[in-house]
Design goal:
This protein is an alpha+beta fold. Helix 1 packs antiparallel against helix 2. The N and C termini lie far apart (56 Å).
Length: 382
């Protein structure tokens, strides 16, 4: 399927990645969000040890196994009849180019549509209990830091993956909120981590397919929560706070490492750090909708507010009556009643002009080529 240019590219890629990693609650939850009432799964993509967990995840989301053969499973959502949408509010949010991975483990995290903190308002982020930042950006560092600090003052818990923080434009150092990311490469000895009951475990990066583990540890923080020991004298901080109880700094790129290793002890550590349980889902209420597609507009009739429609939030969809265009997870969101989106191709004139110039150029080229070939033939005859 040629989905590379789709508005929902990130949705599709994330579902594929989660399926490969065995995060099936995320897979079925996000497919429901996309409006998929029927799902066909190739058995070659699911390891034998994961079949039971996949089937359990399907049941949690209301999907029933209708048919199967030696190659595929066919699931259907019996609750859905005709067009439908989803009403769901995520409890937490993940922001940044590398933040999607936390959603696979804990599907209660929604994924922000923008990597830039500047595209979110204080009021918008205040509705979430927890914010995970990995690969985020900003235009003004001081403004971004103040917004996050103000959110933390209001009780929002913020987790910052130091592996992917922006470099300080003034100093060139990897620093945020006066905490630094220090780069380190593990090649032989493995760092030893611990969980709250005192148990320790090694990050054996070679079993995860790495000959070398390039990562960061945390420095400059006032409160060192967790230190890793990998020889008798060296310790590196991988979990810390810096004066604010609701802002946590994380090193060692541990969310990504769990995707690669599925180390049970590491999952226990992440559960303790994020105060979450893996695979827990937000309630998704399935609500009926009516959608009429015409050449120049799309009309959506909904019976509830804040309905995620399963329709891609394309740039060419322009809401009528000066209404605000609302999207979530790259999908249109509508309120109760009738919502009409006109289809307007904003670059139509420019595109048409480019096409005309292209056609004219081709005609000129072929005319010249025909004339040249005709002249050559005449010379040969003479």
């Amino acid at each position: 399927m040629a989905y590379q240019g789709a508005q929902t590219l990130n949705n599709i890629v994330s579902i594929n990645e989660a399926a490969e990693g065995g995060f099936y609650e995320f897979v079925f939850d996000r497919m429901l969000e996309l409006g998929d009432d029927t799902i066909l799964i190739d058995k070659r993509l699911v390891e034998e040890k994961n079949v039971d967990s996949m089937q359990l995840a399907a049941q949690k989301l209301g999907y029933t196994l209708m048919e199967e053969n030696n190659r595929v499973w066919l699931y259907h959502l019996n609750e859905a009849e005709g067009s439908f949408g989803i009403v769901k509010d995520y409890r937490n949010i993940a922001i940044g180019q590398h933040a999607q991975g936390i959603c696979y483990i804990y599907p209660e995290f929604g994924y922000g549509e923008s990597n830039s903190l500047d595209d979110y308002t204080f009021e918008e982020l205040l509705q979430y209990e927890k914010i995970y930042l990995s690969g985020f950006t900003y235009d003004d560092k001081a403004v971004a830091e103040k917004m996050l600090t103000d959110l933390a003052d209001k009780g929002v818990k913020i987790y910052i993956d130091m592996q992917h923080i922006p470099d300080n434009k003034l100093t060139g150092k990897s620093e945020f909120l006066d905490v630094f990311a220090q780069y380190v490469a593990f090649t032989e000895k493995f760092p030893v981590l611990s969980i709250n009951n005192g148990s320790q475990f090694k990050l054996d990066f070679k079993t995860a397919g790495y000959e070398e583990w390039n990562t960061v540890y945390v420095s400059g923080a006032s409160e060192k929560l967790k230190n890793a020991y990998y020889d008798s004298i060296t310790s590196l901080t991988y979990l810390a706070k810096n004066g604010h109880p609701n802002i946590t700094f994380m090193g060692f790129n541990l969310v990504h490492y769990y995707h690669e290793s599925h180390l049970p002890e590491l999952l226990t550590f992440l559960n303790e750090t994020f105060e979450e349980e893996p695979g827990v889902l937000m309630e998704s209420e399935i609500v009926p909708t009516s959608v009429v597609y015409e050449a120049d507009k799309v009309t959506i009739l909904a019976e509830h507010d804040d309905v995620i429609t399963g329709i891609a939030a394309l740039d060419c969809f322009i809401p009528q009556e000066d209404k605000e265009k609302v999207s979530q997870s790259n999908l249109l969101v509508v309120d109760k009643g009738t919502t009409i989106y006109e289809v307007e191709y904003t670059d139509f004139t420019l595109g048409a002009l480019v096409s005309i110039v292209g056609v004219a150029g081709c005609l000129i080229f072929w005319s010249l080529l025909w004339a040249f070939q005709g002249g050559s033939k005449s010379e040969k005859k003479n």
